[in-house]
Design brief:
Helix content of chain A is 33%, strand content 29%. By secondary structure, chain A is an alpha/beta fold. The longest helix of chain A is centred in the middle third of the chain and has 17 residues. The radius of gyration of chain A is 24 Å and the shape is globular. The chains are: A alpha/beta (327), B mainly alpha (252).
Chain lengths: 327, 252
């Protein structure tokens, strides 16, 4: 296991004003007992709502923050005491925070990084060539970083994080704020990286399309705790995601009509469109019953969307209810 | 460096300005002696020796690690994350991030004052004294460096800590440059011996002049500056490490 954490915890003391001079301190656990193990070459999606503790976990894995409790090991090293050694073995991209030198052209940043990480010239050139061709850097490598667009900068950041050939790559919201094309470029590049299989990737994101396209394994965290760890399919199964039937009708939906094995989710367009969720019955059975009951014009069956599942997961976890049966 | 050489005029102005400031410091000493014959029981050249040591040690420390003052800004903005993600010493990176060549000028001025002071003061030359003459300014620089680092480290807990650390760095520089005998009781005990500023210039200068401490400090303590500096540096280093572990980063 290249990354291993057990009961990892990070507490922050938050002081609030209470009266003119008095302040009350309270302890907030940003990360509250996270146990993870990631195998070499795996690509892990780490998701959760804002403030769930994603970035904090990443910062503990990279040695920026000292854990308040639990154990961490990355590449067999303990991040904080062995920070410098670890830094040579990992690459980090924080979407909201640049690793590049603001006033230097990308090319100069890259050669500076070569010295910082003491990479041999040959390796450096080979990796740079690889990234340049895959990420289309050629048109802007000589532009100062501050003049780059966000998409260009992010491609530069990715390159910078990979130049020393890291074993593990940590990406904190790498596609945040990017346009569709840049997102595709970044995803395509990461998919390539995953295919080569020699780099372990941990990716946090709010864009679930990132996860669908890239990660087989998904860890969902909320309020500092892991609420799901498994594949996307397992997530759907665990939260019993439901398929839907959407029907356009020729006559308004009779309000008192019920169909066994399906529940009415919504009635729209003055009663001419109804959305049913399947509960137990198959789509075929529901469609057959529907056709008997009302005049149908058009029909579609919709697969559950990951967004919905995750949204339910977030709200469910906040309300303190765990996964339902079905796992 | 490259960025700074773009601004030649500003460099020259800085140099002129810092020369004026240093001359003002010297003028203060001169004015004091114009009024009194002695300062805390010491003649002009003796005090000049102490001023000279401090005038070298402080700017030298400022040149090498003075930039850690910026830590506040890095901690507040969360940019310190990027510093910690590179495989280099965090302290080294902060110090090197904005190497200010203009500060070299002050070190040169300090060296000149020190050399002049050694020539005019009644130094009792011997081999140990010669060693002390070489080591003292360096030990002083290490001592001030430790103060700079310790002062900056406070920012890990307390972001608006600038003036506190300035009190100890710039204030300490002034305390170090005068004989400890000029200060009042409690203040003297706290700053000169409690925090060790007397070891920067006052005590080693006494040894160079072959004089005992008039207030009864044992003679051997006069030779201890390199040791106190090492102790201060070690403590500052430990404090720094504790600080880094308390770094909280910012939300993102």
């Amino acid at each position: 296991m290249i990354i291993e954490t057990s009961l990892l915890r990070k507490d922050f003391t938050v002081r609030r004003k209470a009266g003119r001079f008095r302040r009350t301190a309270s302890v907030v656990s940003a990360v509250d007992g996270v146990s993870l193990s990631v195998a070499e070459g795996e690509m892990l999606g780490y998701i959760g709502p804002n403030g769930a503790g994603k970035s904090t976990t990443l910062k503990m894995l990279t040695g920026v923050l000292t854990p308040s409790g639990g154990t961490v090991s990355v590449c067999g090293l303990t991040p904080v005491p062995q920070r410098s050694t670890l830094a040579r073995k990992i690459g980090v991209v924080f979407g909201q925070r640049s690793q590049l030198w603001w006033d230097l052209p990308l090319m100069e940043s890259f050669s500076l990084l070569r010295h910082v990480y003491r990479v041999s010239e040959g390796d450096h050139a080979a990796r740079l060539r690889y990234c340049r061709s895959l990420l289309d850097l050629d048109s802007f490598v000589d532009t100062p970083v501050r003049q780059l667009s966000l998409g260009q900068r992010m491609r530069g950041e990715l390159t910078a994080a990979l130049l020393h050939g890291p074993k593990v790559l940590f990406l904190d919201e790498p596609t945040i704020g990017l346009d569709v094309l840049s997102k595709q470029a970044v995803r395509g590049f990461l998919a390539q990286l995953a295919e080569r299989g020699d780099t372990t990737v941990v990716l946090t994101t709010h864009d679930l399309a990132d996860i669908e396209k890239l990660c087989r394994r998904l860890v969902v965290i909320d309020h500092g705790r892991v609420v799901h760890d498994g594949t996307l399919d397992e997530l759907h199964a665990a939260y019993s995601s439901k398929r839907r039937v959407v029907a356009d009708l020729d006559a308004p939906w009779p309000d008192d009509l019920t169909l066994p094995g399906a529940a009415v989710e919504s009635v729209e367009a003055e009663g001419f469109r109804v959305t049913l969720t399947l509960e137990g019955a198959t789509a075929g059975e529901v469609v057959a019953r529907l056709a008997q009951a009302v005049p149908l014009r058009d029909l579609s069956v919709r697969e559950p969307e990951i967004e919905d599942v995750v949204a339910r997961l977030y709200t469910g976890a906040s309300a303190g209810t765990g996964p339902r049966d079905g796992r | 460096m490259r960025a700074q050489s773009q601004y030649r005029l500003s460099f020259v102005l800085e140099l002129v300005f810092s020369t004026v400031v240093t001359s003002m410091d010297l003028a203060t000493v001169w004015v004091l002696f114009a009024v009194n014959d002695s300062l805390g029981g010491f003649a002009g050249p003796d005090v000049l020796l102490m001023v000279g040591i401090a005038a070298f040690a402080f700017p030298a420390a400022d040149l090498v690690v003075g930039n850690v003052e910026k830590l506040r800004y890095y901690v507040r903005s969360g940019l310190f994350d990027a510093v910690l993600l590179r495989p280099l010493s965090a302290l080294g990176q902060l110090s090197a991030m904005d190497f200010a060549s203009r500060k070299v000028g002050r070190v040169v001025q300090g060296t000149v004052i020190y050399v002049v002071a050694l020539a005019v003061a009644p130094v009792q030359w011997s081999v140990p004294v010669a060693v002390l003459v070489v080591l003292t300014p360096l030990a002083g620089a290490v001592f001030f460096g430790a103060i700079f680092v310790a002062g900056a480290t406070v920012a890990f807990w307390w972001i608006d800590s600038g003036e506190i650390s300035n009190a100890f760095t710039y204030g300490g520089k002034d305390v170090a440059a005068y004989p400890a005998t000029v200060f009042g009781g409690l203040f003297r005990r706290f700053f000169t011996y409690g925090l060790g500023f007397a070891f920067v210039a006052y005590l080693p200068a006494l040894a160079m002049l072959g004089r005992s401490e008039p207030l009864g400090v044992p003679d051997w303590l006069r030779w201890c500056s390199p040791l106190t500096s090492l102790t201060a540096a070690t403590l500052a280093g430990l404090f720094w490490r504790t600080g880094v572990r308390h770094y909280r980063s910012t939300g993102s």
